[in-house]
Design goal:
The chain has 473 residues and is an alpha/beta fold. The chain is built from 15 helices and 21 strands. It is globular and about 75 Å long. The protein binds uridine 5'-triphosphate. The site of uridine 5'-triphosphate (UTP) has 21 residues, from loops.
Amino acid sequence: MARTDHDTERRLRDEAARHGQTHLFRFWESLTADRRRALLEQIAEIDFEELSRLAETARRGESSEGVDRPFEPSPFVALEEGATSTLAADAVREGERALRAGRVAVLVVAGGQGTRLGFPGPKGTFPIGPISGKSLYQLHAEKILAIERRYRRPIRWYVLTSEATHEDSREFFEANRFFGLVPERVRFIEQGMLPAIDRQGRILLEAPDRVFRSPNGHGGVVDALRRSGALDEMRRDGVDLLFYFQVDNPLVRIADPSFIGHHLAGGAEMSLKIVRKVRPEEKVGVLVMREGQYRIVEYSELSAAESEERLPGGAIRFQAGNIAIHLFSRSFLERVAGDRDALPLHRATKKIPHVDEHGVPVEPSAPNGFKFERFVFDCLPLARGVVAIEVARADEFSPVKNATGSESPETSKADLMALHRRWLAAAGARLPEPANRLRIEISPLFALDADELREKLRANEIPVTDGMHLESR
Ligand code: UTP
């Protein structure tokens, strides 16, 4: 090994020893020079101080960063108000103006491992179009293309990936010619990875020459935007708003003008869409206020009593469910990205595959350690202005999380078809009976929303049939 490698090795060995992590070098003697170098690179990225702190918190049995009590339900712009008031019409106009002025970029977070879905490949490549079989990535891409055409402005699209999804996502876009988008305007930015520890605080090795690492959570996007130069690029291009969504929601209304307008009118630094919870057991985090700051309490952190609490009229008290659709002001992201400790690390107890002291792989059958993640919604308390607007769940949110049952491809496809049936009905189309069973899909390139569909159908008499995919422009 070269001299610098030896120096690095010595320094990292010392650092590991200081933090009780000498076992990272346990298999050193058996490794080739290349493998040693690869291992050193991974060890060099570890923040030992931080991990020691996290291990100590876990050892003391303290919960990882949660929301302190007491908190109150948060205010939000209710659906009726958000969609029909004069404020609403103004919001749409304002949002459209921002889109026409090229002030808006789009970001999808697609770095997760999609463990629950168990699909081989990035979730974005999952075929979700109920008739077309189009992938999640393609549906999002076509929406962006349609928005570019509608507002006659190019839009930058940032795709957050991780080691788990980066290469495959990029290849998928290339193989599909970026679904008609201009490739230079689509940028894949890779998020960071974090090691995991066992219950004694020891960093786990996945193989004799490899530290176990997993993506650092969707909150990792803030640092990834800074490191990749995306924030600088946005600034250079005069983009001051970033629309954020998750890859697994085919119903998302990307860069929705009304949302943008409400954000601007409210002078917000971060905005979010919420849906009203109707059942206590719904698995969405809820938006609350604590000491004048907005925060999200994860569903797992809400006590049964808190989830079930009702208002006098019968509505759920903590009802503002977070659906992970946000709008950020760029200057706010720059501020958050400037402080590497701005977003806390959350701990999750997991089954973590690793090698034992003899280098033998172990697939634990019960949780054996902790992974760490940052959450994007932890930006909320840092924002100087927040706007939360209510939307109808059936119109905007139906994520693909599980292989079967709730939040699965089956429910998501059904919700997409139901949405498109409602658009058709609202446009006055005659639907063949039984209308509620009609299988139909509308391409974003045919119509982005109910209003555009109405316009299209006014101009053309299109007979609607079962199994139809309305696609051409
Ligand atoms: P989820 O928490 O639902 O994770 O992510 P997931 O990877 O899709 O699925 P499971 O939990 O492993 O089954 C919500 C969104 O955040 C992104 C995901 O890609 C998804 O769009 N995400 C999550 C990231 O981009 N990076 C992460 O580190 C975690």
